[in-house]
Amino acid sequence: MPRIILPNLRGDEKEITLSDKKILNYLKNVLRCKEGEMLHLLDGKGLVISCSVKEILKNSIILDVIDKIQSSETEPRCRLMLIQPLLKGEKMDLVIQKTTELGVKEIFPVVTERTVPRHSRRLAHWRKVAEEATRQSGRTVVPSIHEIWELRECIEKLPLDEHAQ
To answer: 65, 92 in Cβ contact below 8 A?
Structure first.
């Protein structure tokens, strides 16, 4: 069943209208969704809404909400955090993708002594990679990818208490 991540999903709607051009293109042209098909909407924080495609219009898709689930079944019970030095090229994308699939909840990109910090503008891209990996792996929570820090700063500020939020 197709899974779409909508961070601003409220969960109290009975009908949802999708009008984002990228999502419309994905549903109409990539998945070739038809009226009556089912899909899951996720808020990236654990809420899953099962929907049925009610109507496909030129600039929107209208969905009927079938069921709402606050899912934690696909999430690990422990809070996994990754402190990851910046990597060259597409290697950082691969690390984010695979650790998201494994259940990491937070990723802290850091600059170490031998890091060449060229990736400071890649945060939005890494967050998209994590979102896509969440969608494809069946998770319901998108991991947080924090701002880039120096390693020493990250270790000092990292909450070590397992109950800390």
So the answer is: no
